[in-house]
Structures are given as structure tokens and as C-alpha cells.
């Protein structure tokens, strides 16, 4: 396993699309953090995280998303999560972070 | 279908890894394999895996210069897990999260939600997180 | 792609299981996870998994009343594995199989074919099978 | 994992078709042995082992096949292996058992 992160700027919708493929855990989250913060620094627009290929995430991954969200909120922007797998969705429910992030089907 | 029947009460499996981020994936796979062998269902296997990995994550955040000892005790209808290390600062659960950006107890929150019983003990300077998951027996 | 780089020379992972047939699947998954983390390719991961499982199988055939200790030592470009137990009758390789139905060394034959180096040692009554697999570094 | 074994007698071809699904290892091979020997006792005809669903086999599994073959050879019958996965095929090569069993593509 490991993590591969695809990112893409959607000009029409003016959003970032972020596709983490694999596992975000304490080993891979530093590089995930670098990518996310770099995107936000480049362009502070909404970030859509497509969870289609994300099979695992731990608390450090949640932490990275929270720090990203903190930065984005300063500019009134958001992180929107889509296609999140049930096991990862469960983490958002447990931690109450489902009320902090926008989670779409 | 040849499947697990836990006649073997009290079996113990031990895993020791260096407290390094890159070995948490090994812990996850070992934990899944044990939980699966004992007969937990897919969601429970995931719960056990996540909880043990979070315990390791808490330890590794305190530095990478020690070992993590994980003990799995297999009882008739219970899996007891202990995760221990010398420099283990166990988070305390914080129920009042006023500021969503300022809570430092994600790991323990997750562990307590997923396991049936969680205790943090300390003896001789070794901190030990004990967790228990019950096997729901279908009739 | 975030992947393994074995800067951490000399890391040791230990796994102890009861010498019981039902836990060999746990050994297989743990071995695969370690080999995969270190950067072995799919066929090498399979080789390592099979060899370690065969060592456990040899031990379990001698009875189920002991523990098996497995040590993984991760060096820069080598994985050293030792499998040990008290009642461990290590097969001897028999190169002259005249009667295909009458050779008793399948496990050791498999292990020696799959690993780069294999030695059987005994000290203080504990028999220990040591195996080594080299990481082929691509340029 | 574990092991599930499907068996079926093909009247037209007068052969047993055996489909082990899962893993044959020291834990599951006793039940595999029981099934194989029972089949052979019931009808001593060729046994076709379809390895489509067999993802792992160890030395104890090889041992079971060898004891089955030993019984069948007394009646001039065989074990024929088909659809064997490469990882399992490798075991037959290593042990020289590829010359003892009939292995088809
Ligand atoms: N329940 C929660 N709701 C919202 N944010 C949280 C919650 N728990 C933790 N956080 C945030 O997640 C980030 C990471 O948390 P955590 O992994 O627990 O601690 P650390 O920062 O020590 O790694 C922190 O910045 C914190 O503000
Ligand atoms: N290289 C080989 N070629 C053919 N048959 C073999 C070979 N090695 C072992 N056998 C047969 O496989 C069976 C199982 O062997 P093995 O698992 O090594 O020993 P045990 O019977 O002690 O479990 C034996 O009956 C033996 O006759």
C-alpha cells in the first residue's frame, strides 16, 4: 500500500479536486499535509476530496483535513468530501467531524 | 467451510514493532488477521484494526526511539488487546469540544467509540492501554 | 507515491504465536505486510510468506503445546528471519528422492528454494531456523 | 479466509471434479484430506482438481494430493490439475511434483 495523491484544478467550477489513492495514516499523512497546504496556498478555493480510492484514514489524516479547513475558513472556503467509504465515514461520525466538514454522497 | 471455533481459550499472540510510522501498517494487517481468525465480522475487524493502530499512533507521536508491544489474548468470546510502551502519553478523552480546532483527543475518542472497554494503566513506568472487544455470538 | 525506503537499518519486528495450525494464517499476513513494507515485489513477498509458513508448519506437526517465536530483522537490503521453538524437528533436505511417495522433506525443500540462505541452528535446546532474503535493488 | 470444497461427479466423462475455494494449509488440509479420500473411496476414477478458486496451498496440501494420488494409482487412475495459480504452480515446480501430477493449463 501507501498513498498516491492526484490533484487537479477545475477552472469552470473554481475548485480543487483532490483524489487520495490508498491509505492516509501516520506514515503517509505528512506528505498528504504538504500537498493539501500547498494547494491551498496556491489558490484558496473550495477543495473537493473524492474518496473513491481512499481505503483507509486515521486520526492523523483527520488532523490534516482539519488544519486545511482551518486555513480555508479564513477565506470563507470549505472542504467538501464525496464518495467516502463507510469505514472512513464512521470515523467522521464518531468524532463529530461530520458536522464540521461538508460530506456528500 | 472450515472456520474458526475458539475452543482455544487463553491463546496469546504477541507482536513487537519499533515505534515507527512505517510499521503501523504491519500492525493493522496482523490485527485484522487475528480478528478475522477469531470470527469477528468485517465491521468488527475494521474497528479492532483502527483502534490498535490509533494506540500505536499515539505512541509514535511521542517519538520513534522505542518499541511497541502488542498483546492479543484470545478468550472464548472476547479479544483482549494491550498496547504498551515506555514513552506513552495516553490522551485523555475530552467530551467538551468547544472549539473543533482545538481538541487533542482524536485517537482516544476513536478507540473508546470502537472498543467495548478501554483502560489506561501504568506500572513501572510502562504505560499500557488495554482494550476489549466482545465477539457477538450469533444463534 | 509514498513508499518504503529502508533507512532504518536493523529494525526488529517480533511475532509470537501458539504453535497451532489456526494461527499460521496470522503469520502469513504479518510476513506479507513486513515484506511489502520493506519493498519486496509481489513474487518475493509470496516467497517469504510461504517459507515462513512452512517453518511454522514443521513445528506445529511436532505438537501444539508450545510457542513459535518469529523474528524479522530489517537491514538495508536484506530481510533476516528466524523461526524458533523448543520442540522443533527441522527436516533435512533430501536431494535423492527415489520414491516420490516416500520423501519427508517437502517443507525444507520449499524453504531452501525460496530463500537466499537457510540455516538450522540449535542452542540451549531451542532449535532455530534462520532464513535470509535479499532485496534486489533496481537501478 | 478458510477453505470451502466443492465436489461433483461428472457422469459423462466419468471423473470427479474437485474445486477447493480458498486456502489449503495446515489448518484446513485435514478436512481437504477427508473429502478427497472419501471421494476416492466412493468411486476410484480420475480426479480433476480445478484450481480457479484456490489461492494458497502449502506442503500439507501437497501431502494430501500425494496420498490421494497414491490410492488412485493402485487403480491406474490419476489426479489432473487445471487452472492452477502461478504461486501454487511454483510449489509443484520446486518440489518436482510437476512431474508426478498431470498439470494442464
Ligand atoms: N473532535 C474534534 N473535532 C474537531 N477537531 C478536532 C477534534 N479532535 C481534534 N481536532 C483537531 O484535529 C487536529 C489533530 O488532532 P490530534 O490528532 O488529536 O492531535 P495532534 O495535533 O496532537 O496530533 C488538531 O488540530 C485539533 O484541533
Ligand atoms: N519431492 C517429493 N516428491 C514426491 N512426493 C513427495 C515429495 N516430498 C514429499 N512427498 C510425499 O508427500 C507426503 C507428505 O510429505 P511431508 O509433508 O514432507 O511429510 P509428512 O508426511 O511428515 O507430513 C509424503 O507422503 C511423501 O511421500
UniProtKB/TrEMBL annotation, chains A, D:
Domain STAS, chain residue ranges per copy: 5-105
CDD domains, per the entry: STAS_anti-anti-sigma_factors
GO molecular function, a single term: anti-sigma factor antagonist activity
InterPro entries: Anti-sigma_ant (IPR003658), STAS_dom (IPR002645), STAS_dom_sf (IPR036513)
Domain of life according to the entry: Bacteria
Pfam families recorded: STAS
Family per record: Belongs to the anti-sigma-factor antagonist family.
Name the record gives this protein: Anti-sigma factor antagonist
TrEMBL record, chains B, C:
Keywords: Kinase, Transferase
Keyword tRNA processing in annotation: no
Record domain Histidine kinase/HSP90-like ATPase: where: 17-132
UniProt cross-references to InterPro entries, sorted A to Z: HATPase_C_sf (IPR036890), HATPase_dom (IPR003594)
Keyword Kinase: yes
Molecular-function annotations in GO: kinase activity
UniProt protein name: Serine/threonine-protein kinase RsbW
Organism: Caloranaerobacter azorensis DSM 13643
